[in-house]
């Protein structure tokens, strides 16, 4: 059989889902209309911490057009959303533990009737003391998870008199996912005692477990289908399990379809965020710049329930010292419980907080040593044969030095560093660098969720249907997996159709997170494609037939052209007591150079350019890869410069885009994506993963550039004009500081 004649992996294939999204014909969850649908709504707590002393829904149930009013007592299964720890209720039973926690559910014939029913529910609360500060929660012993890394002898190393030691304390804020589409679900009774849930989500199998738990049914009766999803960034990983279970309960109770679509304000007030963080760090090096020891104390605010906080913390822990050779490392990490909105997955997953600290330390160290920050990083950069702080020996696909060289060349680092240092007016330019690495996949704590499945069916006309358990959330999965399927089968890519994820079509394939989709679903597709090719070969070997002709001949010979594929990654080992072992299978490496302009009279900072480099293994589609970089950089600039939630008594005050500020297209600088290919042997065609790294090391590069421009170091982000201006005033009030 003749293949298509050209390879499609590595080509700029157009996104199959792009035309419908551009034209507005793609059907998002709020676009779906099911006959007889009811409107769902949630009564939420106004208090951060309280006991429910009275909950009376009798009047709400008498309102004409109200078809169900449910409390925790009405849940037929378990009042529990399955996650890492068994602490997250579907509905508050006796206590509420954060503002916005769900207390009761309503289904009615209209949105207005649902709102009226909520107003008539009588709830009385006994307010209780609320823990709203992570340091107070730590002192109170409210620790959800505690991880550590022990390598070498940090105490002895830090006690050496011949080393240069820098230390600092760094703080990072909440960050809102700001996906274009709020969370939404539709629950539909299946007529056989089960429920089908359609929704905007990243992880259908998470939602399936939550629905089955709440209904008290087996997983097969809790079918979950992802609809076209307008962005996720982690905010639709763990959080959608709550509305998924809630809408399933209403559909089950009423016997009718129920829509539960959150408003933007409701979504921002109660859905998960990036964890606020506090990092204390000491970094020691020889006078010629060789890193000797790092000590880290890492604290995250997890909010009221654990959700994914333990694994978010784990990732930050094992990456806490950056992509550098460090013989002595001690990391102590904790995430604490407070009476605030639960925090969960967010692109970067625990790394942006600790990387802000680590890379700020590297810049402080470079300044103390009188070294170029780039040279300090190159001197200590991990390479093949080196070990991470967890003792993981890297044997292949380590392109960190290449990435550093490429971003330095793209930005003209040395020349601009010298040129910008000469700026003397009120508006000054600066250039900064920061780097990171990222363990791809679920790692040592998520091994049970690692495998992924795929189903391939070749129709008689040569078209191919691909079903996987991972999801398209805007990142380009459909495009990349279509290319992998076409390459593996030897068919034209335009004949490949990736269908919406459905828990009834493929086995649990884990979550769409951790930059794992291309590798895991891609390898599952290759496995299935190999089985199909093996079935075809005896019939059409050496025939010279085109793909369509070969498929037609196989159909004539009654050869079945359907297969299931399964991908299981190589085993890794890790000791949680010492923090030593293979925390992840393999790593991507990233570096950003950011150029800024700082108005020293107002504190306003404007990003001028970002040079963003990534060793991502083989790039399956350069266009989608560059899009990932551009989107991640913009998200990172928001985190660095403007994004910040304000809270009062545990309540988020800025719960809409008029008050929670994110970058607009007018704020986006020139972005130069730099994709560096160091293929990884186990990845499909050498691919590794790219989704997470673009956001991680942007903020410390921004603050490094601000320091280069204005001579001030910020230990807290975002670098708002007020914060920059205050630092400038403090600098001007003290001893005169020279430009670096």
Number of domains: 3
Helix share, percent: 25-40%
Mean pLDDT: 96
CATH topology label of the largest domain: Aldehyde Oxidoreductase, domain 4
Helix/strand structural class:
alpha+beta
Radius of gyration: 26 Å
CATH architecture annotation of the largest domain: 2-Layer Sandwich
Oligomer: single chain
Quick recap of the structure?
This protein is α+β, with helices and mostly antiparallel strands and about 750 residues long.
Word description of this protein:
29% of the residues lie in helices and 24% in strands. The protein has 20 helices and 27 strands. The strands form seven sheets. It has a seven-stranded mixed β-sheet with strand order 3-5-1-12-9-10-11, sandwiched between helices. A five-stranded mixed β-sheet has the order 7-15-14-13-8. Strands 16-23-24-27 form a four-stranded mixed β-sheet, sandwiched between helices. α9 (309-318) runs parallel beside α10 and α17 packs across α19 (698-710). The termini are far apart.
List the keywords:
740 residues; alpha+beta; Aldehyde Oxidoreductase, domain 4; Aldehyde Oxidoreductase, domain 3; 7-stranded mixed sheet; 5-stranded mixed sheet; 24% strand
Give the helix/strand layout.
Blueprint: H1 18-23, E1 38-44, E2 50-56, H2 58-61, E3 66-70, E4 95-96, E5 102-108, H3 111-120, E6 122-127, H4 134-139, E7 143-151, H5 154-158, E8 164-172, E9 184-189, E10 195-199, H6 204-215, E11 222-226, H7 241-254, E12 258-261, H8 264-270, E13 277-285, E14 291-303, H9 309-318, E15 328-337, H10 351-369, H11 373-380, H12 400-411, H13 413-420, E16 427-439, E17 452-458, E18 464-468, H14 477-489, E19 496-498, H15 517-540, H16 547-556, E20 562-567, E21 574-575, E22 580-581, E23 587-599, E24 605-615, H17 622-641, E25 647-648, E26 651-652, E27 670-676, H18 693-696, H19 698-710, H20 721-733
Parallel strand pairs: 1-12, 10-11, 14-15, 18-19, 24-27
Antiparallel strand pairs: 1-5, 2-4, 2-6, 3-5, 7-15, 8-13, 9-10, 9-12, 13-14, 16-23, 17-18, 17-20, 21-22, 23-24, 25-26
């Amino acid at each position: 059989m003749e293949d298509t004649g050209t390879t499609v992996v590595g080509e700029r294939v157009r996104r199959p889902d792009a035309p419908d999204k551009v034209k507005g014909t793609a059907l998002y969850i709020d676009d779906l209309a099911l006959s007889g649908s009811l409107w769902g709504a949630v009564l939420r707590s106004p208090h951060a911490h309280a006991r429910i002393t009275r909950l009376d829904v009798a009047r709400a149930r008498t309102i004409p057009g109200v078809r169900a009013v449910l409390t925790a007592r009405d849940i037929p299964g378990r009042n529990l959303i399955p996650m890492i720890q068994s602490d997250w209720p579907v509905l508050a039973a006796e206590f509420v533990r954060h503002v916005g926690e769900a207390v009761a559910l309503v289904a009615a014939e209209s949105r207005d009737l649902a709102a009226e029913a909520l107003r008539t529910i009588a709830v009385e609360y006994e307010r209780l003391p609320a823990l709203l500060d992570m340091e107070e929660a730590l002192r109170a012993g409210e620790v959800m998870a505690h991880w550590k890394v022990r390598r070498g002898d940090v105490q002895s190393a830090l006690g050496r008199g011949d080393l240069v030691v820098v230390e600092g304390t760094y703080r990072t804020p909440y960050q809102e996912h700001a996906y274009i589409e709020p969370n939404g679900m539709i629950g539909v009774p299946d007529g056989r005692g089960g429920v089908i849930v359609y929704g905007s989500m990243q992880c259908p199998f998470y939602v399936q477990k939550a629905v089955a738990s709440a209904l008290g049914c087996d997983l097969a009766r809790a079918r979950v289908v992802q609809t076209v999803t307008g962005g996720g960034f982690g905010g639709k990983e763990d959080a959608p399990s709550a509305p998924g279970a809630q809408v399933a309960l209403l559909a089950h109770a009423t016997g009718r379809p129920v829509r539960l679509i959150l408003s933007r304000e409701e979504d921002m007030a109660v859905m998960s965020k990036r964890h606020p963080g506090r990092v204390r760090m000491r970094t020691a090096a020889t006078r010629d710049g060789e890193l000797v020891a790092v000590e880290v104390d890492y604290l995250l605010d997890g909010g009221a329930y654990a959700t994914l906080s333990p694994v978010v913390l784990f990732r930050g822990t094992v990456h806490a010292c950056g992509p550098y050779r460090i013989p002595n490392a001690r990391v102590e990490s904790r995430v604490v419980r407070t009476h605030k909105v639960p925090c969960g997955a967010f692109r970067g997953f625990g790394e942006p907080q600790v990387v802000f600290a680590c890379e700020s330390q590297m810049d402080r160290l470079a300044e103390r040593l009188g070294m170029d920050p780039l040279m300090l990083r190159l001197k200590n950069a991990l390479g093949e044969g080196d070990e991470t702080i967890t003792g993981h020996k890297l044997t292949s696909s380590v392109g960190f030095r290449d990435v550093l060289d490429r971003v330095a060349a793209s930005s003209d680092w040395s020349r601009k560093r010298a040129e910008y240092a000469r700026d003397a007016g009120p508006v000054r330019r600066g250039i900064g660098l920061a780097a990171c690495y990222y363990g791809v996949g679920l790692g040592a704590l998520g091994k049970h969720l690692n495998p992924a499945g795929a189903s391939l069916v070749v129709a008689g006309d040569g078209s191919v249907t691909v079903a996987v358990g991972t999801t398209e959330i805007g990142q380009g999965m459909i495009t990349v997996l279509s290319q992998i399927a076409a390459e593996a089968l030897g068919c034209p890519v335009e004949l490949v159709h990736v269908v919406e994820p459905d828990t009834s079509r493929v086995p649990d394939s884990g979550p769409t997170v951790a930059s794992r989709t291309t590798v895991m679903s891609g390898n599952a597709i290759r496995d299935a494609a190999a089985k199909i090719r093996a079935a075809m070969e005896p019939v059409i070997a050496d025939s010279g037939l085109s793909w369509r002709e070969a498929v037609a001949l196989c159909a004539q010979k009654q050869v079945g052209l359907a297969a299931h594929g399964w991908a299981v990654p190589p085993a890794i080992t890790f000791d949680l007591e010492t923090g030593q072992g293979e925390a992840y299978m393999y790593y991507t490496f990233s570096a950003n150079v950011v150029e800024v302009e700082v108005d020293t009279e107002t504190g306003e900072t404007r990003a001028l350019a970002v040079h963003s480099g990534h060793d991502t293994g083989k790039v399956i589609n350069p266009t989608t890869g560059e899009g990932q970089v551009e989107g991640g950089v913009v998200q990172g600039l928001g985190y660095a410069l403007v994004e910040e939630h304000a809270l009062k008594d545990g309540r988020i005050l800025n719960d809409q885009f008029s008050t929670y500020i994110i970058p607009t297209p007018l704020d986006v600088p020139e972005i130069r994506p730099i994709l560096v290919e160091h293929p990884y042997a186990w990845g499909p065609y050498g691919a590794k993963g790219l989704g997470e790294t673009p956001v991680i090391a942007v903020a410390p590069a921004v603050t490094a550039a601000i320091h280069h421009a204005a001579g001030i170091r910020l230990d807290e982000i975002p670098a708002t004009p007020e914060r920059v201006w205050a630092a400038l005033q403090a600098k001007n009030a003290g001893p005169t500081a020279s430009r670096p």
